[in-house]
Design goal:
The structure is a homodimer.
Chain A: H1 14-21, H2 25-32, H3 40-53, H4 59-66, E1 71-76, H5 81-96, E2 100-105, H6 112-120, E3 128-131, E4 144-147, E5 158-161, H7 163-176, E6 182-186, H8 192-207, E7 217-219, H9 224-236, E8 243-246, H10 249-261, E9 271-276, H11 279-283, E10 289-292, H12 295-312, E11 318-321, E12 324-326
Parallel strand pairs in A: 1-2, 1-3, 3-4, 4-5, 5-11, 6-7, 6-8, 8-9, 9-10
Antiparallel strand pairs in A: 10-12
Helix pairs in contact in A: 1-2, 1-3, 5-12, 7-8, 9-10
The structure holds a DNA duplex (16 and 16 nucleotides).
Chain lengths: ~350, ~350
DNA sequence: CTGTTAGCGCTTTCAG
DNA sequence: CTGAAAGCGCTAACAG
């Protein structure tokens, strides 16, 4: 016997309400959308029918017809701590302004941004926030704000944070504490945000008159496994670093895990600083010192901008939010003696 | 001049692809959906046109027509830490199984669950997780799994956690440390989950042979402001409690804030235990001892069940996940002397 | 193998 | 003030 789906209970639709109230679908539609040209009497009867049947309009159908909705999208590649934080901030603003919000995870395949936008744009959502996009070429069909895009600058309105200044500050912080061999675990060289962070590191190193040793600069592609590998190599060096600056918290945590598996202590043997300040950073043992991006505030700012664009046809801008060093427990003075790996 | 919306760039649709490839829309549709009855030649030409135009099907329209989609919904009243954690777990499973996922925050108004379900059900999503629902009467039109519903037991498949046992454990933990006057800041008496937590408290108190003093039992409706008020009253009592058990972490944090504003120290003057283990609990100063619900695991479990229901027409079940006491820094021995409020 | 056509639920002219 | 009918983008019958 072939697969047989349980017949779904029919959804109640406009026609059901119309029949119940003894009017036409057109009239019900007018009542639902507060159009005038309906007598109070009829309207009351229709409303009653709506309540009794528990009717609620179908977003797909009305969006298709109207080419407009009051739903805003937040498009992410996946729900991880970073996007979850942004979502909280964005949702708070949207709800306050009377918009509903839909968060969509489009999967990891290349071009997910455009795909998600095309699938939802116009008929389901009236505008979108795209989180950490890497592909943003085509003119989108609805207003779009990019949050922390990896390539840039692009033509889209954007909210991001000042990774350059943030990383300069983190590097100086280590230098002030006596570190001179500071390694950098970067993300992906071709991404704008990664590039800025690395530039900040280089700037601070040179400004302090330290030697810029490029063997101390590695790329992780933000992949924890690669971060572990790079950390291992760095620690095996003739003259290993005493501190590690990481492109994000997840790679910082991976590096710290590896160091400890090798019998080292953080920060006694190796100081580590992350980037982002996702919730996990504070929970790590030892709590991770990191460069905080104000994720919720970034989400809120981006959503405000999007709403202005959708509602008032406002121009989008480029907003760069400040970062801030959060001092916790993963940085100490440089280890005095040589490294003994367990 | 009246408000004039910027004319949106037209979305590319099936008809555009058809024209480009020199075939009919029906043919393009077949190619898109991998139906057979299209020559390889034509199919190739169509695919080329799709790529060139960057076409991606419109979810609203195809859902409307097919009465089926491969998108699953996670319906929440708002995106707060609790639902964000569940979402992470649920999303991981859905993506692994080839489903897309849409999270929808329906607003706080009464009956948001039903409204969201009606608006999205069938045409946009093929099934839904409803998080902390309070209204679940009508037969939903698509498969639905309730996560941590507040009323229960209901007829819907459900994933929740064992609040009774969790609260018994937390209460015993305090008793073991010498506390005898233990207050309980409950949520909403009419909610099933709240009720179970309070029952656990009562059970443990009586099992230990302690007097059950109902003036120590307060209701907060999970509202931080009410939690503060209740805490204030408790501390003003002739014989104030030495420990506070809270229905969730947010009220526990509110209570701790108030206690400290009154000049008390946590846990020296007052021990506090929360419930849920949202990320904020660990970040609070002092880190909050709490009863952990495995939120991500609950989201994952619920999503697995939903997928089985949607795909294989499986029966839903009721899964109750274990809770676990997380010992942190907000519990100490009972204060020896009387309380001095600052 | 391909195209024509009807209709999913909804909103909007436009007649009555 | 009310309803009939067309059409949003898409898919599934059904002819050709």
């Amino acid at each position: 016997m072939p697969f047989m789906a349980k017949p779904l209970p029919p959804r109640v639709k406009l026609a059901d309400v119309a029949e119940r109230a003894g009017v036409s679908v057109a009239t019900v539609s007018k009542v639902v959308n507060d159009r005038y040209g309906v007598s109070e009497d009829t309207a009351a009867r229709v409303k009653e029918a709506i309540d009794e049947l528990g009717y609620a309009g179908n977003l797909g159908a009305s969006g298709l017809r109207m080419q407009a909705t009051n739903v805003l999208g937040v498009l992410v590649s996946s729900f991880e701590p970073f996007s979850a934080e942004l979502l909280k901030g964005a949702a708070r603003v949207a709800e306050g302004e009377g918009f509903e919000i839909i968060a969509h995870s489009g999967g990891a395949s290349f071009g997910w941004e455009r795909r998600s936008l095309a699938r939802l744009g116009g008929t389901i959502i009236a505008g979108a926030l795209i989180v950490t996009a890497t592909v943003l070429d085509a003119d989108p069909a609805v207003p779009v704000v990019a949050v922390d895009p990896h390539y840039g600058p692009n033509r889209l309105p954007t909210v991001d944070s000042d990774g350059f200044t943030g990383m300069v500050g983190a590097t100086r912080y280590l230098i002030d504490r006596g570190h001179t061999r500071i390694a950098f675990l970067g993300g992906r060289a071709e991404l704008d945000s990664s590039h800025l962070r690395e530039a900040g590191y280089r700037e601070a190193i040179q400004e302090a008159g330290l030697e810029l040793d490029t063997t101390l600069i590695r790329e992780t592609r933000y992949d924890p496994a690669l971060a572990r590998e790079a950390t291992r190599e760095l620690l095996m060096l003739e003259e290993p670093p005493t501190a590690l600056l990481c492109g994000n918290d997840q790679t910082a945590i991976a590096a710290a895990d590896l160091a400890r598996e090798l019998g080292l202590e953080v920060p006694a043997d190796l100081s580590i600083i992350g980037f982002d300040d996702i919730p996990d950073a504070a929970l790590y043992e030892p709590a991770l010192t990191t460069v905080r991006q104000p994720l919720q505030a970034m989400g809120a700012e981006a959503m405000s901008m999007l709403i202005a664009m959708v509602r008032d046809d406002a121009e989008g801008r480029h907003v760069r939010m400040p970062t801030e060093l959060v001092e916790r427990d993963s940085v100490g003075p440089p280890r005095p003696g040589p490294l003994r790996l367990g």
